[in-house]
Amino acid sequence: MLSRTADHLYWMSRYIERAESLARLVDAHYRMSLLPHSAATLEKSLHATMTALLMEDAYRERYSTIEPRAVFEFVSLDRDYSGSIFSCLRAARENARAVRGSLTSELWVTLNSTWLDARSMAARRTPGADIGQFVEWVKERSHLTRGVTIGTMLRDEAFHFTRIGTFLERADSTARILTAHQGDLVPGADAGVVPDPYEWSVLLRALSAFEVYRRVYRDVITPTKVAQMLILRDDMPRSLLRCCKEVYQNLRSVANEHSAETERRAGEMHAMLHFTRMEDIAAGGLPHFLEAFLGRVRDLGDRIASDFLVPPAEA
Amino acid sequence: MANRPYNEMYLSSGAARLHYLRYAEWLANQPAERLAQKRAEADAVFHRVGITFAVYGQEEGAERLIPFDIVPRVLPWEEWLRLETGLKQRVRALNAFIHDIYHDQQILKAGVIPAEQVLCNSQYRPEMQGVDVPGGIYAHIAGIDIIRDDAGEFRVLEDNLRVPSGVSYMLENRKMMMRLFPELFSTYRIAPVDHYPDVLLDNLRSVAPTGVADPTVVLLTAGAHNSAYFEHAFLAQQMGIELVEGQDLFVRDEAVFMRTTQGPQRVDVIYRRIDDDFLDPLVFRPDSMLGVPGLLTAYRAGRITIANAIGTGVADDKSIYPFVPDMIRFYLGQAPIIGNVHTWMLRRAEDKEYVLAHLSELVVKEVHGAGGYGMLIGPAATKSEIEMFRRQIIATPERYIAQPTLALSTCPTFADQGLAPRHIDLRPFVLSGRDVSIVPGGLTRVALREGSLVVNSSQGGGTKDTWVLEN
Predict the structure, then answer these.
(1) A80 and A208: one domain?
(2) How confident is the model at residue A311 (pLDDT cuts 50, 70, 90)?
(3) Residue A117 β-bridge partners
(4) Same-domain status, A206 and A261
(5) Residues A314 and A167 placed together within one structural domain of the fold
(6) The CA-based dihedral angle spanning residues A6, A12, A16, A19, taken in that order and rounded to the nearest 10 degrees
(7) pLDDT at residue B51 above 70?
C-alpha cells in the first residue's frame, strides 16, 4: 500500500485513541470534582496529569490558575489548542478523509459523523454546561470506531497500520498517566500509608481498570498491585505489556526489507516487559522506568515513520 | 429568448409526456410532508457520507453539498439510443482528430480547419507530436454537455476532454433515489448505471503499455483540498485502485513507481485528475507541486499510459468546437447525428460585426474559459457588462465565440415555493478503450435560480438523477 496512505491510517487511529485517553482523564477528574472532598487533591492530580501530558504551557497561556472547570473546557473543547479532544477528532477525520478510499464506507462514515456531531455539539453548547456528557460520548464514539475497524476492515496492511497507531498511542498514554501518579505508586507506600482513595479511583477509572482490579486481585488497592496490573499484566487491555505485544505483532505482519531493526526493538520492548518483575522495576525506580519507556515509544514511532510511512525521497 | 423552452415533463397542454405519465401521477399523490422529509433525508445522508465539494478560497475544511433535486430527469429509450449513437460518433471523431493533429495533420492539410487555429492554440502540446499512445486513444473519458433546444432537439454545447468530472454524482444520485423512493424503481424499468466503475477500470486496463499482462492502474489526484476530491476518492475506491498524489510517484529509468510500505511498485496506467499544466514540473509549470518530475519522459518512451492523454485540450477548446461536425464528416465520412449549437467565431470579421450588433441577445464565451466563468449572457447582462465585453471583443476578437441565448429545456424542480420549472442540461460520460461505451444517462445539472441558464455547481447549480427507461 502507499506509504502516505499508511501514514494517514496510522495517525487517524492515533488521534482517535488520543481523544479517548483524554476523554477518560477528563471523565475521571470530572467525577472526582463532583465528590465532597479536598479540592487540593483534585488540583494536584489535574496538575500532575497536565504536566505528564505536556499540556501545561498551552493551558497557562490561556488561564492563570488550575481550576477544574477551566481545565475540562480546555482539554475537551478548545478549538485553537491542537491537543484538545475537539482537535484530535478533527485531525482523525482529516486523516481519514485523505484516505477515505482505503477505509470501509462504514469506518469513514463513523469518523465523519463523529466530527460533524462534535462540531455541532461544540457550537450548540452553552459555557459551563455538563462536560461529562461530552466526554462520555467521545468514549462511545472511540469504542464504536474501534469496533467498526475490527468488524469491517480486511486484515491487510491497512488494518495493521491502523492497529499499530492505536496501540502505540495507548502505550504512550498509559505510561503518561502512570507518570502523573508515580508518587503514589512507589512500592513501600503500601507500608501502612493509605493513599487518597479518590486519587486511586481517578487513575483506575481513567484506564478502565477499577473493576478489573477488584476482579483480578479481590483485595484492597495497593500501589504495587496497581503498578503490576498497569505495566506487566498481559490480559489487561491498556497495560504497557499488552500494548507492546499488539504493536510487535502488527509490526511483524507488515515487515519490509528495511524494518528488521524496528521489529527487533519492538520485540525487545515486549520481551523486556514480559520477563520483568515488579521488584526489578522498583529497584531502578519507577520514574526512571517510565521515562525510559516513553523514550522507547518515541523511538519506535520515529522508526516506523522512516521505515514505512515517509520513506526517504528516492527509494 | 424568443421561444418557450421545451418542458421535459409536460406538454404545452399541461398533460404529462408519455414517459413521465406514471411519475407525474405518483408525484401528484405524494403528500407534501413526505417529499419535504425525503429532501431533508437526502441532505443529511449526503453530509454524513461526505459527498461534498471543497470550496476554493474558504477556510480549510469548508465543504458544501451540491444541491440534489428529487425530481428525476427521464429519457425514453428511443431518445437515448439516438443520443448514444451520436455521442459515440462524436467521440470517435474527436479521438481521430487528436491523433491526426499530433501525427500527419491531414485535416489541416485538407484545409478543413485553419492550421494556425490548432497549432497556435495554447492547448496544443508540441511535446506530443509523433508520440504514439496505446490504441490511438486520447480522450478515454469524455464528458459531452448536451442541451435540448426549444424545438426539442438535442445539441452538443461543449466537449470536455481533459478531466471531466461529475460522474460520482451520477452514481450517488441514483443510489439516493433508490433509497428514498424504492417504489418508483419497481414501477419503471430504469437502466442501471452502477457498473460505470467496472467499465472504466476495464477500459483503463485495456490501454496499458504493450507487454504489460496485469497492469497496475492508479488515480492521480491533487489531494484532499481539491474541489473534486470526493469524486477522486470515490472512483479509486470503487475500482479498487490506489488514489495517489504526485508526491507518491517518482520516475526512475523512464518508468513510473509509487512509494509503498513494501518499497517502490511499478505503475502502468495513470488515470489523472489534474490538468496537463501540473503533470510534470520539468516540462510544464515548474512551480507545480502536484505532478511527477520526469513523467513526460516516461510517457514519451511508452512506459506509462496517461488517461486522458496529454494534449486533449486542443480538441475541446471553444475555438475548435465549431469544427467538430466537420471532423465527423472528415474522419468518419458520416453526417453528424447530434448537431452543434450555432456558433459565431469572432475572429471572422463578418461574425464579429453581427455579434457586436446583437450583444444584448447573445451569449459570449471566452474560448479558454470553463465552469461558467468569463461569460456574458446578453439578455441578463447590465449595460456596463455589455460595454465591457464589447471593448474586450474589439481588442481581442479571437478570444471569443458567441452563441444564441438558448432556451435550455426545463424540468420541474423543487424551489422555495414548491415545484417550478428550472433549466437543465445533461453530461453523459463516454468511455473509450477496448470499445466506445456509455452508461445510460449521465449527470443532469439544473440551474436552481429562476430563469438562470448556468448549471455549473460553482455557480449555484444542482443535480438530478437521470433515468433512461428501458423498453
Answers:
(1) no
(2) low
(3) none
(4) yes
(5) yes
(6) 120
(7) yes
Contact B259 A311 (CB under 8 A): yes
pLDDT tens-digit readout, A38-55: 788 888 888 989 998 999
In Å, what is the CA distance from A228 to each residue of A192, A207, A293, B392?
19, 14, 15, 81
**How many domains does one find in chain A?**
2
Determine which of A3, A10, A79, A103 to mutate to test the interface with B (most B C-beta atoms within 10 Å).
Answer: A3
> In angstroms, rounded to a whole number, what is the distance separating the alpha carbons of residues A45 and A85?
19
Same domain, A78 and A141: yes
Answer whether the bond into residue B308 is a cis peptide, omega within 30°.
yes
Residue A268: its pLDDT value, please? 97
- The domain in which residue A37 lies consists of 1-153
Selected for mutation to probe chain B from A10, A79, A97, A114 (highest B CB count within 10 Å) is: A97
Say whether residue A86 is in contact with chain B using an 8 A CB cutoff: no
pLDDT tens for B220-279 read 999 988 888 999 999 999 999 999 999 999 999 999 999 999 999 999 999 999 999 999
Fold designation for B344-404: Dna Ligase; domain 1 (3.30.1490)
Q: Does A57 touch chain B (CB under 8 A)?
A: no
The whole-angstrom separation of Cα A266 and Cα A251 is: 8
How far is residue B169's CA from residue A181's CA, in Å, rounded to a whole number? 54
Task: Give the closest of B242, B250, B252 to A2, CB-based.
Answer: B242
**Residue A190 vs residue B292, higher pLDDT:** B292
Contact B137, B207 (CB under 8 A): yes
How buried is residue B50: exposed, middle or buried, by Cβ count under 10 Å (0-12/13-18/19+)? Answer: buried
Nearest by Cα to A47 from A31, A70, A24: A70
B238 to chain A: closest CA residue: A101
Q: Which amino acid is at B20?
A: Y
* A136 and A172, same domain (yes or no): no
Q: How far is A62 from chain B (nearest CA, A)?
A: 24
Q: What percent of chain B has pLDDT over 90?
A: 81
Q: What is the mean pLDDT of residues A118-127?
A: 83
What is the CA A220 to chain-centroid distance, rounded?
Answer: 26
Of the three residues A125, A153, A181, the one that is the final residue of a domain is A153
DSSP B301: T
Q: Are residue A38 and residue A91 in the same domain, yes or no? A: yes
| Domain range summary for chain B, segments of one domain joined by + | 18-340+406-469, 344-404
Query: Distance (Å, rounded) from C-alpha B168 to C-alpha B197?
Result: 10
Neighbours of A190 (CB within 10 A): 14
Kindly write down the DSSP assignment for every residue of chain A, as one continuous string.
-BHHHHHHHHHHHHHHHHHHHHHHHHHHHHHHHTSSS-HHHHHHHHHHHHHHTT-HHHHHHH-SS--HHHHHHHHHH-SS-TTSHHHHHHHHHHHHHHTGGGS-HHHHHHHHHHHHHHHHHHHHPPTTS-HHHHHHHHHHHHHHHHHHHHHHS-SSHHHHHHHHHHHHHHHHHHHHHHHHTHHHH-TTTTSS----HHHHHHHHHHTT-HHHHHHHH-S---HHHHHHHHHH-TT-TTSHHHHHHHHHHHHHHT--TT-HHHHHHHHHHHHHHHH--HHHHHHH-HHHHHHHHHHHHHHHHHHHIIIIIS--S--
Residues A283 and A190 in one domain: yes
Specify whether A2 is located in the same domain as A140.
yes
| Whether pLDDT at B373 is above 70 | no
CA B376 to chain centre: 21
B130-147 pLDDT, tens digit each: 999 999 999 999 999 999
Residue at which a domain ends, from A137, A153, A169: A153
